[in-house]
Amino acid sequence: MSETNFIHNIIDKDLQTQKYGGRVYTRFPPEPNGYLHIGHAKSICLNFTTAKKYSGKCNLRYDDTNPVKEDVEYVDSIENDVKWLGFDWEKRLFASDYFDRMYECAVHLVKKGKAFVCDLTADEIKEYRGTLTQPGRESPYRDRGVSENLQLFEEMKAGKYADGEKVLRAKIDMSSPNINMRDPVIYRIAHSSHHNTGDKWCIYPMYDYAHPIEDAIEGITHSICTLEFEDHRPLYDWTLQELDWPTPPQQIEFARLNLTNTVMSKRYLKALVDDKKVDGWDDPRMPTIAGLRRRGYTPEAIRDFCERIGVSKANSTVDVGLLEHCVREDLKTKVPSKNVVFDPIKVVITNYPDNETEEVEVENNKEAPEMGNRMLPFGRELYIDGEDFMEIPEKKYFRMFPGNEVRFKGAYFITCNEAVRNADGQLTELHCSYDPATKSGSGFDGRKVKGTVHWVEARTAIPVKVRIYDYLMVENGQGDSELNLDSLKETVAYAEPSLKDAKPGERFQFFRHGYYIADEKLTAGSEKVFNQIVDLKSSWKK
Ligand code: ATP
Ligand code: MG
Q1: Is the pLDDT score of 2 beyond 70?
Q2: pTM, whole model, 2 decimals?
Q3: Separation CA 542–CA 329 (nearest Å)
Q4: What's the CA-to-centroid distance between 313 and ligand 2, angstroms?
Q5: For 453, what's the count of Cα atoms within 13 Å in the CB-facing half-sphere?
Q6: Which atom of ligand 1 is found nearest the CA of 36?
Q7: Minimal-distance CA residue to ligand 1 atom 18
Q8: What is the DSSP track for 470-521?
Q9: Annotated catalytic sites, by residue?
Q10: How far apart, in whole angstroms, are the C-alpha atoms of residue 221 and residue 218?
Q11: Ligand 2 center–CA 87 separation, angstroms
Q12: 532 vs 56, 325, 367, 368, 430, CA distance in Å?
């Protein structure tokens, strides 16, 4: 990350004062309860590039302290996604590996008189907690003696009590203006199997208690998280202070990424998958890293996007057009152009010799001449794009209409003479004529034409399936009612023959249509299915 930000300013100062002895150590701590999304990418880029900038280290740590929603499938997908984005961790760790240590820390707090076992129900705890304007009330169990607390906590661990029967709470201050400091629950009972520790534990630490300990054990210096944890920071600091941790890590909050036309809560994305409203976590419409990858986004484009949006303390919503701009910019000089026609209209060049074909030369990428040229078959029968013909042209329409002459890209000047219709009045083909003197590259310097159209030769063209995506959400949509279920359109297009060699995951520009990728899952053998990555026109304004 070349640019600096407020987090780097904090680190610069810490380096000056030698707060952490010159060390910078960050971590990316996902909860393995879903696939990562583009919001997580912001956090990944920030943590890993910050470590890199300061020659520090960054861990990948699974924050797996909640047994109910976590799954090995998610663990694997997260690792894969972080790697794909181009980052490498110092260590890959599980918070659940620290359960013993966290338990010991809790016992330590109990012994210090800083934690107690409470028998109030969840509802009662909530009621006792008070509100923003009213202080809370102390639990009747708050003054239990140390030895009773130790015994009860031990029994909780041994499985003597049912879920919800008892909790361990920090003893802080029921009248604190910060509700998080009103004797927060730090351990709860959950008789459920954990993906990593199995049935070893039936008590699990709460996030606010566990997270600072995880950071501290790993020697993290700067614990970067999103803004909603700002009010939890006093509890983060309290925990490490009461545990007498030397040079505890510091939590720093930044604004999470919000994107237009996108929902980024894992819970909601999971519901879309579970309810089969999308075709899995990697549906190309999903804002997940897996979805973006299958859609055809590159890691470079996503990293560029994360750098451009920057890091701030104020929540805002970024236009999804910026993300699209980044992938266009990245692919512009990277991928070859191909002729593919949509809504094909047949063109017959009536003065071109029957049963004859020739090869014409076209460039692979106008923006990258070093990508060279390729040969395309040209003949008497061709297909052009449906939108390149208008029987009655509108103003400023320079493509095909009866009486008009255009250039067929890389080939000849061609005049449209007649639109042929069948008995039902449907357009069946266009009868055209070509001027042999106008071959591209022949140095022809006669009349000018205003329009250029692309084409494929009819006998050698191959049909390909093309999937065009719209946004899954209306602009600032948050829920089901704003879900755009009409967001996938599949059509068959005719492609130049070279696309028969397209490999799953290979990207192209479909000339004048946009950027496309051969779908990883659906492309096999001669069956070619392309996802539209992004169209060519940018709606995004700087
Ligand atoms: P969600 O609300 O989507 O479930 P989460 O915050 O619960 O997300 P975690 O797995 O806990 O998901 O997140 C791992 C890290 O990614 C955290 O540090 C979190 O702050 C960060 N993160 C999550 N969503 C975003 C976002 N939209 N923008 C930036 N960072 C994010
Ligand atoms: Mg979370």
Answers
A1: no
A2: 0.94
A3: 14
A4: 18
A5: 28
A6: 10
A7: 225
A8: --SB-TT--SGGGB-TT-EEEEEEEE-GGGGGPPTT-EEEETTTEEEEE-TT
A9: 31, 256, 266
A10: 9
A11: 21
A12: 39, 14, 20, 21, 29
Query: In this structure, which residue's CA is closest to atom 25 in ligand 1?
Result: 39
Q: What is the pLDDT of residues 488-528, one digit of tens each?
A: 999 999 999 999 999 999 999 999 999 999 999 998 888 99
Q: Give me the DSSP letters along 195-248.
A: TTTBTS-SEEE-HHHHHHHHHHHHT-SEEEEEGGGGGGHHHHHHHHHHTT-SS-
51 Cβ contact list (under 8 Å, min separation 6): 24, 25, 26, 57, 58, 90
Calpha distance 213→261 (Å, rounded): 37
Return the amino acid letter for 407: R
Buried b (16+ CB within 10 A) or exposed e, 42-62: bbbbbbbbbbbebebbbbbbb
Q: Can you tell me the distance from the alpha carbon of 185 to that of 463, in angstroms, rounded to the nearest whole number?
A: 61
Name the nearest CA neighbour of 380 among 412, 349, 347: 349
Ligand 2 centroid, distance to 133 Cα (angstroms): 27
Q: How does the average pLDDT of the chain come out, rounded? A: 95
Atom of ligand 1 nearest to the CA of 43: 30
Distance of CA 452 to the CA centre of its chain: 37
Average pLDDT over residues 470-486: 83
Q: Which residues contact ligand 1 via a Cβ below 6 A? A: 29-31, 39-40, 42-43, 63, 225-226, 256-257, 264-266
* CA pair distance 138, 394, nearest whole angstrom: 77
Mutate to test the pocket of ligand 1, among 42, 43, 46 (most ligand atoms within 8 A of CB): 43
CA distances from 43 to 3, 67, 208, 268, 324 (A): 16, 23, 19, 19, 19
